[in-house]
């Protein structure tokens, strides 16, 4: 059974186990686009931490940098059909 986090938990930045599960279920329900986007965000962060900042990646630039391939790979890994 899922329960919503209390206001105090949300305000403190803590999340419940149920909220984490709900987030994973959202990805598995076909929202693998978010997983691909987060993957690119983490790549940008890693470059920044390595002293090679490249700035934000958005829209067409994300596609040019492989977003569609990541989207499809996450869909495959999560067993989600794609429109491709």
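^ structure tokens above, recovered residues below v
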């Amino acid at each position: 059974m899922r329960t919503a986090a209390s206001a105090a938990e949300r305000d403190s930045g803590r999340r419940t186990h149920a909220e984490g599960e709900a987030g994973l279920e959202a990805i598995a329900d076909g929202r693998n686009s978010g997983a691909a986007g987060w993957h690119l965000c983490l790549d940008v962060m890693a470059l920044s931490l390595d002293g090679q900042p490249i700035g934000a990646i958005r829209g067409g630039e994300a596609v040019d940098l492989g977003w569609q391939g990541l989207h499809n790979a996450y869909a495959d890994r999560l067993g989600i059909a794609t429109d491709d």
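The chain has one domain: 7-78.
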